[in-house]
User: What shape does this take?
Amino acid sequence: MSENRFKEGMQSTFLRISAISLACAIHCLSPQTAWADAPSPSSEEGSAPKAAVTILDTDVNTIAAAAEDTERPVQNGATAIMGASANPAPKVLILYAPYGNGHKSAAEAIKNDIENRPQKPVVVLTDVTAFLKNKTKDNTLSLYDQLTKKMPEVYDLWFRFYMALGARRSPDKLPVVRYYDADKLAEFIRQEKPKVIVSTFNHATEVLIKLRSTQQIDQGIKIAWQHTDYVEEKYFANLSRKIDMTFLPHGDMVRTWIKSYKVPASKVMSPGIAVNSNLQKQQTAAEKDVFMRTNGLDPQLKTVTIMSGAAGVGDFPLMVQSLASSTSEPLQIVALCAKNKPHYDALLALKSSLPSNIKLVVRGLIRPEDVADYFKSSDVVVGKAGGLGSTEIFTIGKPFVMLDINGGQERSNIGFFEARNLAVGTRRQKDIGKTVQSLLRDPARMEAMVEAQNEFVSQLDNKRIGEWVGTEALRTKQPHWISVGIKCVVDQFKAFF
Assistant: This one.
């Protein structure tokens, strides 16, 4: 009897110890306790110490010293030092390309979203064209500029060909991939040790897919891509299949990705294209009056602003002359030439020959916030149909005339926007005046376009990008020895009895 009681007591004690040990192990390994001293993502900012943030803009010649790899983020807001016992903050690498300004602007907006989170990983922004072989970078940038400016139909043919090829072939087998030094990029990634890589350039995403498929980078790195155009080609969906997350500009595209292209729903979301949050700030009547007078504009005149990207794509003198000849009423034209000095010089020479009812204000390269204020002060905006630039106009809320002069992805963007009454496109720059006047003379049409833009923007939530990236960067990996620990407890129990 006493022997049975002893055995029953030992069984009970061992079971309790095993249960307590197992519970403690699971608790210690749970993600909720990884940042026990830091606020949760939903906590109000300032309620607990924050992790330090470092924002780096690098190329391959200015790589920041790589921190040691870590399974857990920094605790108590302390930044780890090489060789110290504390874990360094997790890192996010964002790759962009300088073909136009949209890819970098989207990358910077994503960086800002991450920076505004209570828990902040280190963010490294890098121009992926630094990894192009030899002089390929200069050649490709020059070729892109020349084709889009002088031979847009040739560029459109190339774009259509690449879309067709990408629909049939795996992304890592496409021709642009071989222009990149994959080994050099892989070494850079191994030095930086990011937990998450975000690409805002589709060809960079192709190279990342190659590095993952050839196991040249850590297979645990999460890869995400921001689609910066409203193009629903199968090629782009093929990118999404090979990575962890795609941020699409619109909900209709998510449905296309899932239903038509069979991309898993877990790999796509539609937060929109990341734009600067300052664009959402409305301009008051008083602010508009001050801005316009300060910049030599008359607040009482109808105002049309022309802005066609950093390169000033299109024929600005032709468009200004078209606007000037389209009306006998007073009209104010703002030409933002950006980096295009020939346009700037030609327009200054043109000013004296314009009719007396036309006021022309010419500007070169100005700050992005000033560009936004010119848009906000305008009645109609004329510009190129890039994905990011168009989204910025919609965010501000202005009747928009899109220039269909580049072909390629911009022609697809125009089709997407016109189908939803967000803007109107034209291929004939000499008819810009007629197109603009058709809007100015129809206030109801202008109001309906702005309402459609407001509805469009209301469905977007750029913060979801920062939330996903931040969550994945701070996520604690579950070591494989959890199952080993459970097995040990079971084996000990069996051995004892």
